[in-house]
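Suppose you are handed a protein chain with no further information: no name, no annotation, nothing but its sequence. What can you learn? This example shows the usual starting point.
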Amino acid sequence: MLYHPDEYNKVVILRRALTGVPPVEAMDLVLNKLKKTGSNIEFLLSMGAAKYVQLITGMPISDPTGGYKCFRRGALLSIDLASK
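A reasonable first move is to predict its three-dimensional structure. Written in structure tokens, the prediction is:
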């Protein structure tokens, strides 16, 4: 593939950022981000922004913009669904 030098640098950063992510999770993350962006550079910038947010906040998740809510298992088990 041919990249503009700016895009290539962002691809290298993205690959380094995804190094520790399990392959299936990494593919899900990349595919979900691709669906939400209109161009390669928009995608690469959004991925860079996500990594920046992760580093600054210390959040142990790979996509802070995914819109998912996470709950601890114990919190979910404490909900009495039978009485609802």
